[in-house]
Design a protein that fits this description.
With about 375 residues, the chain is of the alpha/beta class. The protein has 14 helices and 15 strands.
Length: about 375
């Protein structure tokens, strides 16, 4: 039976936790021992007493959790102090986004631990079951955030996205029609904004046209047409994803210069490096900065702002895989091709093609 550890997240304003009471119950029922760091679940509405009542052992600090556990469950990528605590006989299961954090990839490889990334667990049909719930939340929040920062006291143009009778609504451009983009469009359209979605898949654009009943504009490609339409935008949402790889830079600095002063950019793909050239990673404590008069929002852990919702949505998806890893460790990955896609680092080696490409290492071909 495994010893499962749940440390408290230490990223700036990260209130999510990697295990709910339902997940705890499932692990304990299978005979595993669960160690939870003191106050790890408080931000998500789960107290130490709740965990204790479910059979978890509460430990005073992260070092104690890492020392005891074989399987470490987290939400966000380990910070430097946490990397130092990992050892070669452990498995780490969390979001990693290593293609955009190559030094972290190299540091994790040196620990010898097996590192399995939520965001690259991938089904045969291409779906990303552990990224999807957070993409849904980040997409919906991105519009909400953009609408907030368009207000004049927040540094924006002073535009109400939905407009009012006699005054035109705001223009929202969404780059990428996947889970993030679709959910961003739902909120933007619901608010009454004019919405344009760019994507490179005609099939996806047909699907979106059908879903929105032709009430959002769908545009193929992101080159000339994006450059043409970007100056009209009040809010631009970056929602580009290539699983396991760095996001391509779609919007250049010159294109940003052509945007309206006081318009807002929210790049949800910043955790994979961002699809807007002028984006950089920010935190919930200092979320925005200005480039050429355009307000940029680059928080990499957007769902951390709504932990009650996002913790439960995330752990609903991760639990079946947590149970497999607790039961069989790396063998579970060998037996499950979906979970094997999540393995980024094993036995001191970076093994995921997207991460290898990002660090400039040769990628093995089948």
């Amino acid at each position: 039976m495994a010893k499962v550890g749940v440390p408290k997240e230490i990223l700036d304003n990260e209130y999510r936790v990697a295990l709910t009471l339902a997940g705890l119950n499932a692990l304990v029922k299978e005979g595993h021992t669960v160690y939870v760091e003191k106050d790890a679940g408080v931000g998500s509405g789960i107290s130490d007493e709740d965990y204790k009542g479910g059979g978890a052992k509460i430990l005073a600090d992260a070092a104690s959790v890492f020392e005891e556990a074989d399987l470490i469950l987290k939400v966000k990528e380990p910070q430097p102090s946490e990397v130092k605590m990992l050892r070669k006989d452990q498995t780490l299961f969390t979001y990693l986004h290593l293609a955009a954090h190559t030094k972290l990839a190299e540091d994790l490889a040196k620990t010898g631990a097996t590192c399995v990334a939520y965001e690259t667990v991938q089904m045969a049909n291409g779906q990303l079951p552990l990224l999807t719930p957070m993409s849904e939340i980040a997409g919906r929040l991105s519009t909400q955030i953009g609408a907030n920062y368009l207000e004049r006291p927040m540094g924006g143009r002073g535009v109400l996205l939905g407009g009012v009778p006699g005054v035109e609504p705001g223009e929202v451009i969404i780059i990428g029609g996947g889970i993030v983009g679709t959910n961003a469009a739902k909120i933007a359209h619901g608010l009454g904004a004019r919405v344009t979605i760019f994507d490179l898949s005609l099939d996806r654009l047909r699907y979106l046209d059908d879903v929105f009943n032709g009430q959002v504009r769908t545009v193929f490609s992101v080159g000339h047409y994006l450059e043409e339409l970007l100056p009209q935008a009040d809010l631009v949402i970056g929602a580009v994803l290539i699983p396991g790889k760095q996001a391509p830079r779609i919007v250049t600095r010159d294109m940003v210069k052509q945007m309206k002063k006081g318009s807002v950019v929210v790049d949800v793909s910043v955790d994979q490096g961002g699809c807007i050239e002028t984006i950089k990673s920010t935190t919930h404590s200092a979320p925005t900065y200005e480039v050429d008069g355009v307000l940029h929002y680059g928080v990499a852990n957007i769902p951390g702002a709504v932990p009650w919702t996002s913790t439960r949505a995330l752990t609903n998806a991760t639990l079946p895989y947590c149970l497999k890893l607790a039961k069989a460790g790396y063998k579970a990955c060998m037996e499950d091709p979906v979970l094997m896609k999540g393995v980024n680092i094993h036995k001191g080696e970076i093994v995921h093609p997207g991460v290898l490409e990002a660090i400039g290492a040769p990628v093995a071909t089948a």
